[in-house]
Design a protein that fits this description.
By secondary structure, the chain is an alpha/beta fold. 35% of the residues lie in helices and 16% in strands. The chain has helices at 17-28, 66-70, 72-75, 109-114, 118-142, 152-162, 166-169, 176-186, 199-211, 222-234, 263-270, 276-283, 307-310, 321-332, 377-387, 403-409, 462-475, and strands spanning 7-13, 33-36, 48-49, 58-59, 86-87, 91-96, 102-105, 216-217, 238-240, 253-259, 290-298, 312-317, 342-345, 360-368, 395-401, 446-448.
């Protein structure tokens, strides 16, 4: 790095959405920033590539982006002017059952309720309508570190539901449809569904579906990273790819260094700079379940039996609440379910740029024990065939990735955990450690800005944004973000 500027106000390590958010926030405040990325391309979990056959564009990790649509930080940027287009499917998420019935999440509460059993429609409305109405007042509190809430009554109403287990939450419903629909939402938490706070992610994703939708980025998830990169460079920021940081000694002089990494990588790079206490607490940070990921090149659209599934960007495949709960419990306890809960996306149905004319792509993963190398492709395809008979006949090519391969691709995916660490009740706000500021480390000027800090996983950039604000308050007093 001898050719780099010898002094910077801030260096950001890792050019995922949170690294970009930190770099952009600091750069907009008039500070001189350097962003370093170990891979050849930026994006972290928002990269896209031809993983199967030429002309078939697949999302390597994240695919559907409800949190990008709702993120206060991302919404403050002119990303549409830089070519980012978010496509909203007619059905946000569909959930089929073996008897041919389907529950579905629509932008409209009424349309969603119409897919549920009669006895649960009014209860769903009573639960979600007040939270949907309050969401604009809730979002800053939900997508930030623990602090005194700006709207205590609204956040209390949300918290009473969010801190429940998903099993407890669905106890208010009597039919399989509402229970199954929420199971699919809650399983995005990577938690057993009887754990406290396993309802939080499901509640948030449901609310966001009603307020902002679950959109698909045109041209692949990489288009989010590309827009962020272009905006950062337009501000005068400096970016270097193919620059893996292995120690602090590699870095030029800077007043602040922010790491878009998980505690495991942070300890390896900067552990000797930390106090014994802080280093010890970081070593106890817990990672969650891993994923087994699949991508397919298809000769036609996935032949779901249910129409709502054919119109959905996301399909939650797993059947009843009880079946999904068993699958998630198996993965958490080190077992591999033969009927795994499968998160399935079909981006090419709504974005023709993803595949050659008449052809399609599909994307899916299931949860597995952290570090697993078991091949789950047969189990995943069997689950898809269960609700889309004939799916296998359409497969032109497939690509699989176990947890070790996911981590090799992106070291932040420790053991295949794409969430940056378990988001259970003990690590929801106190990630990576319990502290007044979760972004500040014990070493002056070193900060963590990844999904291992609040509010956790998802493509929203809020971890990086809040970490940058913390660094500004500590190191650059009187400096405020400039918007627009």
């Amino acid at each position: 790095m001898d050719s780099l500027n010898p002094e910077w106000d801030a260096i950001i390590v890792g050019a995922g959405p949170n690294g970009f958010a930190a770099a952009i926030t600091l750069q907009r405040a008039g500070l001189r920033t350097l962003l370093l990325e170990g891979a050849a391309t930026t994006g972290g979990g928002t990269r896209s590539a031809e993983l199967t056959l030429p002309g078939f564009l697949h999302d390597v990790c994240s695919a559907i982006h409800p949190m990008a649509a709702v993120s206060p930080f991302l919404r403050s940027l002119p990303l549409q002017e830089l070519g980012l287009t978010l496509i909203e499917p007619p059905v946000q998420a569909a959930h089929p059952f073996d008897d041919g019935e389907t529950a579905a999440l629509y932008r409209s509460l009424a349309e969603t309720e119409a897919t549920l059993d009669d006895a649960d429609r009014s209860r769903y409305h009573q639960t979600f309508a007040p939270l949907v109405e309050a969401w604009p007042r809730l979002i800053d509190d939900v997508l930030g570190p623990l602090h005194l809430p700006r709207h205590p009554m609204d956040i209390a109403r949300f918290g009473l539901q969010a801190f429940r287990s998903a099993s407890s939450f669905v106890g208010q419903f009597s039919g399989k449809k509402a229970k199954g629909l929420f199971a699919g939402m809650a399983a995005h938490s990577f938690l057993e569904l009887d754990q406290a706070a396993s309802a939080a992610i499901g509640l948030t994703l449901s609310i966001v579906g009603h307020t902002n939708g679950w959109p698909i980025p045109k041209g692949g998830s990489q288009s989010i990273a590309t827009a962020l990169e272009q905006y950062y460079l337009s501000l005068g920021g400096v970016l270097h790819t193919n620059t893996e940081v292995k120690s602090l000694a590699q870095l030029p002089t800077a007043r602040a260094v922010l790491f878009d990494l998980t505690p495991k990588q942070l300890l390896r790079i900067a552990g000797e700079s930390f106090s014994d206490s802080y280093r010890g607490r970081l070593t106890k940070y817990r990672y969650g379940m891993g994923v087994f990921k699949m991508d397919w090149a298809l000769s036609g659209p996935t032949p779901f039996t249910a129409e709502a599934c054919r119109l959905a960007g996301t399909v939650h495949i797993g059947g009843t609440f009880e079946e999904i709960a068993r699958s998630e419990s198996d993965a958490a306890k080190g077992r591999h379910s033969q009927r795994p809960f499968v998160l399935f996306a079909q981006q090419s149905i709504f974005d023709a740029s993803r595949a050659p004319t008449g052809k399609h792509t599909a994307w899916a993963y299931c949860h597995v024990p952290n570090g697993s190398t078991v091949d789950m492709s047969e189990a995943i395809e069997r689950q898809i065939e269960r609700f889309a008979p004939g799916f296998r006949d359409l497969i032109l090519a497939r690509r699989t990735a176990n947890t070790a391969q996911m981590e090799l691709y992106n070291p932040n995916f420790v053991g295949g955990d794409i969430n940056g660490g378990a988001i259970d009740i003990t690590q929801l706000f106190t990630r990576p450690v319990a502290a007044i500021s979760p972004y500040r480390t014990s070493a002056k000027g070193i900060y963590l800005c990844s999904s291992s800090t609040p509010p956790g996983g998802g493509v929203h950039g809020m971890c990086g944004y809040h970490a940058a604000l913390r660094a500004m308050k500590d190191i650059f007093p009187g400096t405020l973000p400039k918007h627009g």
